[in-house]
# Entry
Amino acid sequence: MGTLVTTVEQFTERWRIPPNLRIGGDLAITGYTFPPALHVLDAIRQDEAVRFTILGNEDWSVRMDRTAAFRTAPVEEVVTWRFRLVHFNLSRFYDGLLSGFQQHVMVPWRSRLSGWGFTWQRCAPLLFISTAGASSTYHNDNSHGLVWQAEGIKTFHSYVDPDKHLGAEAAVVGETTAEDPPEHNPADRLSVRMGPGDLLWSHALTPHWVTTESQLAMSVTLSHGGLCHQGRFAKRELALREYWDRHPEEAWKLDLRNVRY
Ligand SMILES: [Fe+2]
# Structure
């Protein structure tokens, strides 16, 4: 499911207004191969900036033990636990674990975006690793995401028409976040199953949630804050800008990188 956009012309026309888009063709990212997810997990779980949540139906004491042992237990055992993990500051791995990512992904992507007429305030990669049965929260982000599935399978769920479920103003003030999505008609849902190499454009300020379908799954989202094409912001971003006009003291808080997962 989901419209596939393969040309710059299609993308520059459709990036401003939901629904989410599958991305391919001329827009694909090439020239970088991720290290295996197991290897990334093993390295990144040691980093102080990593955030993880142990999930599952086990007893709370089991989950507490797993939380305590997450960094030190054999990684082969850790991947049998249900969890989700995020890291929002990958630049600290550009010289080692993710060597080449800056040179072969971030610089070319920024150059292409710029060449297509885009400007932005923030553009940074976020890493997500999760195991079978794990779900993200139900939330929206202030940034557009180019979601890039690196390994395993996840399904990215959003709505065909987000306006029916959460207005832009409500999204701006973050009325969304919950562990699970609210009751809704399955026909209203746009669910994109993503395998290795697949790309998805997730619109800023639209509610979504992500489920993991394989034993281990890793994705990287290139997040774009304040994205603008030839002077035009996305439709939902305009609501955020209007909110900042009324509450200028809050505009800086995006720098806190309060990204929800
Ligand atoms: Fe998100």
Q: What stands out?
A: The first strand starts at residue 3 and ends at 5. Helices lie at 8-14, 37-44, 60-69, 75-78, 101-115, 168-172, 235-246. The pocket of fe (ii) ion is lined by residues 139, 141, 208 (CB under 6 Å).
